[in-house]
Write a structure and sequence with these properties.
- Helices cover about 40% and strands about 20% of the residues.
- It is α/β, with parallel strands linked by helices.
- Strand 22, helix 18 (about 565-575) and strand 23 (about 585-590) form a beta-alpha-beta unit.
- Helix 5 (about 165-175) runs antiparallel to helix 6, helix 6 packs across helix 7 (about 210-240) and helix 7 packs across helix 23 (about 675-690).
- The longest helix is centred in the N-terminal third of the chain and has 32 residues, at about 210-240.
- The protein is flat, with a radius of gyration of 30 Å.
- The structure holds adenosine-5'-diphosphate and magnesium ion (MG).
- Magnesium ion binds near residues 296 and 297.
Amino acid sequence: MHPATPLTELDWIPVPRRRQLERVGITTVDGLLTHFPKRYEDRTRFDHFPTGDSDQPVCVCGLVKKTSLRRFGGRQKMFDVVLEEENSHALSQPLICRWFNAHWVEKMIVTGQRLVVYGRPKHSKSSVVIAHPEFEIVENDAEVSLHLNRITPIHRATEGLSPRVMRRLIWDVLELVAKSPIHPLLPPTLDATPRGWALRQIHFPESQEALEKARRHLVLTEFFGMQLCLAAKRAEQTSQPGAVHFVSDSLMKRLHAALPFPLTGAQQRAIAEIRADLASTHPMNRLLHGDVGSGKTLVALSAMLLAVEAGYQAALMAPTQILAEQHYLNFLHLCEPLGLRVSLRTGARREDSSALPLISAGASPGEEPHLLVGTHALLFEGAGFTRLGLAVIDEQHKFGVLQRARLRSQGVAPDVLVMTATPIPRTLTMTLYGDLDVSTLDELPAHRGKIVTAVRDTAKLPDAVKFLREQLEAGRQAYVVYPLIDESEKLEAKAAATEFAKWQELLAPMPCALLHGRIAPEEKDAIMEKFRRGETKALIATTVIEVGIDVPNASIMLIENAERFGLAQLHQLRGRIGRGRHKSYCILLRSPKVEAEASEKLRILEETSDGFDIAEADLRLRGPGDILGTAQSGLPPLKLGNPIADHEWMRLARNAAFLLFERDPQLAQPENESFRRVLAETRKLMLSQVS
Ligand code: ADP
Ligand code: MG
């Protein structure tokens, strides 16, 4: 039987059941067999009945001694099931399973039944209770061998499709499938485990070892599919004819000569890598990442000058208005002396996209700018580039897989450089930016002022304020970051106003300014400009300042309720200081009762300023879900594998996929036929996810 066989062809599945499956997106044999268990219960040996609280859930089997239903508070109901261990002894204590307002459970459970129960026990008034446990009624029928005395799969349940029902169904389909050979989807060199065996073992493992082996095979299969897509994309990109965007580097050299500092070794390496890309006829697709303050902008600008000297335009797209303006000013300052025209375009006035505000420096009417700086809106509103040779996309925290696709789909095939705000752990670049080449800035410029980071209780605010005032009096400038409590417009404005009044008073008579997301773009510019010139001493701000703002004289940052921010975000915020020669101070105020995890987060910041370490720690603390949620847009969905925890397998799958494409770029060889199908299937999945 072919894996793509629709379930409609299995006429023994009752129609209502098939409909239920369809509702959760399962329509084929393969869809059913890759509906993997969410967990397993080892029902060859149950846990002992718990005698107290436990952090870990327990799985026990027992007999229903009695049930009781109580009503309280009008329409509320509490249903208790007293469960006894089968071979109870003098010390055994019954377990109470408790449900609130669970009408359907009341109807299912009766005295005398045998139950398997899974949940977290809590001690409550001299008895042990599991509230709303997962449970299964053991029926001594012909099926008992399927559900008991084995490592039993628990599949995700939805209404009508209990784990028990799913288990039976999958068992039957596995039996059916076992009659015909299942084609391997992996090169045997990667993993030679037969897929049919792996599918059976992932659902009905005969041992923990078999389960591990099956999982490895199936995760590799998923990863391999994903990496085939990335490898295909890469092969496509390199086979596309592109233009050579490099002639000579005299402009860039003039820029470098005018700088008051030498480039770091890492910057030079990155520029050399980019230059080789620009000089080749293959379109560049490169990721530039590095720590906060490692000087990514200068690398980007150097690349842009190479393209300009070759006779092309170069564009930089920033994620926010403020940042676009800052890059613009910076470029203006550096490039005007070279006789280049720089222009700023933003989509701030979206409603008027036909007449984008075009501010050009040095452009006489009718002349095309050499360098364009804008927000990402540049991409979407058809900026009308005439000779775009290089596009730099400054992505900050957004993983812009879709934006890159968008740019390419516009018909222009410029070289593309993607910049990210913080370093990306290697474990993730393989997945997130798997189709890109990578340049890493792993070195900070010398003579950077040190940043001292200190975590303090909110109660120490007066001390912090005193310190802040001293620093301001010594000529420094400061950022005060307050957490955004509510995103709603009204509340935000109110919170901002209150915060601002408070800080103005605390820091009087130092001139302060307020900056947050709801301030109109022109006003924001004016505020930033005054701060840059040093007329404003302290900027009271939300995280709008997080992205790339560069004011070297600002050397103190105070972050209120620091525990509310993410680790990477705090690191990025802190990166706003320590940019000049002054010693800098970052004070993280935290409320007294923060959870262990939050104080761990703040402690990491106190201890290290290495963005690569912090990125790894962030990944560890936050877990994959959060990060991959955004990251996976535009990538095939993963049902089983975890690109972070299983990154070693991701690496193996990646090597295998890229090797395959290296040897057979079209996958035209007969022995690669099945991989061509895998690729097509995975792509279909990806498309269904994007739309
Ligand atoms: P990021 O990598 O965080 O985007 P930027 O590109 O904003 O960092 O650079 C941070 C600051 O460091 C800027 O003020 C920039 O002019 C400066 N800078 C860049 N390269 C060097 C260098 N090689 N030596 C000293 N300062 C540098
Ligand atoms: Mg930057």
